[in-house]
Design a protein that fits this description.
Radius of gyration: 22 Å
Oligomer: single chain
CATH superfamily of the largest domain: Transcription elongation factor, GreA/GreB, C-terminal domain
CATH class of the largest domain: Alpha Beta
Distance between the termini: 33 Å
Helix content: 25-40%
CATH topology of the largest domain: Chitinase A, domain 3
Strand order of the largest sheet: 5-4-3-7-6
Strand content: 25-35%
Number of helices: 3
């Protein structure tokens, strides 16, 4: 089985590393302390604090393993080092115009773990990003959305960090 590479921006990698450090240095010790305190209360079978702390520990360790796996397979792409060609590639910010409504929208194409639609960051695997990749300023991209096809004219492609 081929290893999957996870594309991510420099900021996305930093955010993941920060979360990992927080989990290891702050969350994990608090959970260990909570388990130790709950053990002191005696009978573990009916000790709700102990079971809650053990459950938290499971979630924490699962997230640590997930982040470590993704970081070990990360393909960090620094958009500032790539040549500006006007083509839409991973990491660029794109200004789009809805052909039908003239509504303007801006998206940054990022890795799956970085996507945040409220902040106009879309995953490289999203239908919109897949329709945009490889296109250039002035092109029209057709996005297959749940409500039907939407045509966007590509107004500007920006290499912003």
């Amino acid at each position: 089985m081929a290893l999957t590479k996870y594309p991510m921006t420099v900021k996305g990698e930093k955010a993941m590393r920060d979360e990992l450090e927080h989990l290891k240095k702050e969350v994990r010790p608090k959970i260990v302390q909570a388990i130790a305190e709950a053990r002191e209360h005696g009978d573990l079978k009916e000790n709700a604090e102990y079971h809650a702390a053990r459950e938290q520990q499971g979630f924490c360790e699962g997230r640590v393993q997930e982040i470590e796996a993704k970081l070990s397979n990360a393909q960090v792409i620094d958009i500032s080092t790539l040549p500006v060609t006007g083509k839409i590639i991973f990491g660029v910010t794109v200004d789009l115009i809805n052909v039908e409504t003239d509504e303007e929208i801006t998206y940054k194409i990022v890795g799956e773990d970085e996507s945040d639609i409220k902040n106009n960051k879309i995953s490289v695997t999203s239908p919109i990003a897949r329709a945009l990749i490889g296109k250039e300023e002035g092109d029209v991209a057709v996005v297959n959305a749940p409500g039907g096809e939407i045509e966007y004219e590509i107004d500007k492609v920006k290499h912003e960090v």
